[in-house]
TrEMBL record:
Gene3D superfamilies according to UniProt: NAD(P)-binding Rossmann-like Domain
Taxonomy, superkingdom: Eukaryota
SUPFAM superfamilies with a match to the protein in the record: NAD(P)-binding Rossmann-fold domains
Protein name, per record: Uncharacterized protein
Amino acid sequence: MAHAIRAQDLVDKLKSLYPNYSYPESLTEGVEDDKLSSDKLLRLLGWSYRPLEETLVDSIECYRKMGILN
């Protein structure tokens, strides 16, 4: 299933995984609107979701290897 997460919850999760980075002091949450989803098509193609924490860790590690994050 797709991950829906508030911006503050995402920052809190990242802080717990990577406490040495700097994060915004405050955030403004967006308004939830109806969103289009390609979920059904992706599942038909054999694609599946990964756990949110795994996705975040893989992304941060990739950014570090690319030199985007120090």
